[in-house]
Specification:
Layout lengths: L2 H36 L23 H16 L4 E3 L2 E2 L1 H14 L1 H5 L3 E6 L3 E6 L9 E6 L20 E2 L2 E3 L7 H16 L8 E6 L10 H10 L7 E9 L10 E8 L1 E10 L3 E2 L8 H14 L11 H8 L7 H5 L2 H12 L3 H7 L2 E9 L5 E2 L2 E10 L5 H12 L5 E8 L12 H13 L4 E7 L15 E9 L13 E3 H17 L16
Parallel strand pairs: 5-8, 5-9, 9-18, 10-17
Antiparallel strand pairs: 1-2, 3-4, 4-8, 6-7, 7-19, 9-10, 11-15, 11-16, 12-14, 13-15
This protein binds ligand LTBZUB6S and zinc ion (2 copies).
């Protein structure tokens, strides 16, 4: 073949390759565009014909408002702090017990309600249903709070429950006395109105959630297991209604946690011979450990976006974003790698992308002129749904890559199972319906809870655990969680009561409706 003949052949092959590539790209974009226009996973059962339950409605009058706010404020003023794994405020927990009995006299005296103390300070309520064949469900909340100190910069003392511009300030106002008081206040109102549930339910109030729930939630689970109880679903704290928190999202979103990330606390330690600081070795225990810690920070865990429930979250929210995010989120089959790079830029969304690594303790040194024999650091990892404690530990050892650094697992558990969110998932659909009835402008989406809750101890009692409370989180509110100026608006606290009031009644529905065939559904 002549030189010009072979050039022509190469040119023809190149032409074929380029046109095939163009056709493939065009085809992919056409599929992506069709999916962007048709994806509206938020439709579902909302349009279906729901079984009638004759729900009672709750209209709160002036006197009730004063009383419910006074109750809530009193709950906040009792400092039920869990200080450490071994230090809880038992005096405050006993006071809280007395307070509950005074604030909710109907709950504690009703023949429909059986109450017992578990693990000395936790509370377990059983509300009897009229139809015992209906499988019961369970609502969880916790009594204890994390420590708070006014000197950290609180606008009002953290146990004052002071009301400023329509907000009640105090430790526990969003974590988690709002849920606890909201549930019991709703039950008090329901019982006062003569309500008797068809479906029985439990309420569990743990006293040590902030220190792992080992005596509270775990003992409640033990008691229920001994009685052979199985639950239709469990609902606990966790995610909330985010309003203006997710950049680019139009309107508020109620994220319902289908799972929780796993957790591992890993200790890194370096031991060397101690000595005089005037004759230092080339590397000290502190230097070796600091290098190990820096390696962990410089080498984040792999991106796993799309291998857990977080992909579903963005597909459900996609239609509430504008172009190009709407296009990207509607087509995660194509754009997952791109979206994970966008999300990892901010800590709050990075938590959805991977197992996160946080160095939370660093201890070393005894005296200014002594080479320390021991340096220790603790790393707290929150494990993505697609990884396990064991895998994470292996990656840490590889990344540190230094035999002088001892790596030990102190405490850990794998990510929690993923609960259902489809049209047959009773708990999810009832929570979603209750949210949308009360807040019609909200978009409901399944999600992953990046923190841990007492509900993780309930996995042997049900496959369906949901982490959600109808607290509204606006910009700046995430920082109040375990931070300073924790607060809730009086309006939102009332909404929470109405939410639980409606939720309990909606759970009397015996069977979910058949899915409505809608043009929005795929
Ligand atoms: C794409 C961005 C979405 C942003 C939405 C994020 C909304 C986050 C809302 C709340 C934060 C999650 C908090 C979950 C509850 C955590 C309770 C807690 O602190 N638990 C302890 C348990 C531990 C075993 C003591 C924990 O450290 O996780
Ligand atoms: Zn909490
Ligand atoms: Zn907490």
């Amino acid at each position: 073949m002549t030189e010009s003949g072979s050039k022509l052949r190469i040119f023809k092959i190149l032409k074929i390759i380029i046109s095939s590539l163009l056709i493939t790209v065009l085809l992919l974009f056409t599929i992506a565009a069709i999916r962007t226009l048709s994806l509206d996973v938020n439709a579902g059962l909302q349009l279906a014909h729901w079984e009638k339950t004759n729900n009672k409605s709750l209209v709160i009058d002036h006197h009730q408002r004063e009383e419910l706010l006074a109750n809530f404020k009193e709950a906040i003023r009792i400092p039920t702090v869990s200080f450490s794994n071994t230090e809880i405020n038992t005096t405050a927990l006993l006071e809280f017990d007395r307070f509950l009995r005074k604030a909710f006299p109907t709950v504690f005296s009703s023949s429909l309600v059986h109450h017992e103390l578990v693990g000395n300070y936790s509370h377990l309520f059983w509300v009897k249903g009229s139809q015992p064949e209906l499988v019961p469900y369970m609502l969880l909340a916790h009594i204890d709070v994390v420590p708070a100190s006014e000197s950290d910069g609180w606008e009002a003392p953290p146990f004052s429950a002071k009301e400023i511009d329509g907000f009640i300030y105090g430790r526990g106002t969003i974590d988690d006395k709002n849920s606890l008081m909201g549930i019991l206040q709703a039950l008090e109102y329901l019982l006062l109105k003569g309500y008797a549930p068809r479906r029985g339910f439990y309420i569990g109030l743990g006293h040590d959630e902030e220190i792992n729930g080992l005596n509270g939630a775990m003992n409640i689970v033990r008691v229920l297991k001994q009685r052979g109880v199985q639950l239709l679903f469990v609902m606990d704290e966790g995610l909330t209604i985010s309003d203006g928190i997710i950049p680019g999202l139009e309107g508020p979103a109620a994220l319902i946690g289908l799972s929780e990330k796993g957790q591992a606390t890993v200790k890194l330690s370096v031991s060397v011979a101690p000595g005089h600081s005037s004759m230092p070795p080339r590397e000290t225990s502190i230097g070796i450990l600091a290098t190990a810690v820096k390696r962990l920070e410089d080498n984040p865990m792999p991106r796993l976006f799309g291998y857990g429930p977080e992909g579903d979250t963005f597909e459900h929210l996609a239609h509430k974003f504008s172009f190009p995010l709407k296009f990207i989120m509607s087509n995660l089959w194509l754009f997952s790698p791109l979206l994970s790079r966008i999300l990892e830029r901010k800590p709050v969304s990075n938590a959805f992308v991977r197992t996160t690594t946080a160095v939370t303790f660093f201890n070393a040194g005894v005296k200014i002129n002594v080479i320390p024999s021991l340096a220790e650091a603790y790393v707290n990892l929150r494990i993505h749904s697609a990884q396990s404690v064991e895998e994470v530990l292996d990656i840490i050892k590889d990344t540190v890559g230094d035999q002088r650094v001892k790596v030990e697992l102190v405490y850990g558990f794998d990510p929690l199972p993923i609960s259902g969110a489809d049209e047959k998932a009773f708990g999810f659909q009832i929570i979603k319906k209750t949210v949308l009835d009360l807040f019609p402008t909200v978009t409901v989406a399944p999600a992953i809870c990046v923190g841990n809750t007492d509900s993780r101890h309930f996995i042997d009692l049900t496959k369906n655990i949901y982490r959600f409370s109808p607290a509204w989180f606006k910009p700046g509110d995430l920082e109040r969680f375990h931070g300073i100026n924790e607060r809730i608006s009086t309006k939102n606290y009332e909404e929470m009561i109405v939410f639980y009031f409606n939720l309990i009644q909606n759970c009397d529905i015996r069977k979910l409706p058949e899915p409505h065939s809608s043009v929005h559904e795929l």
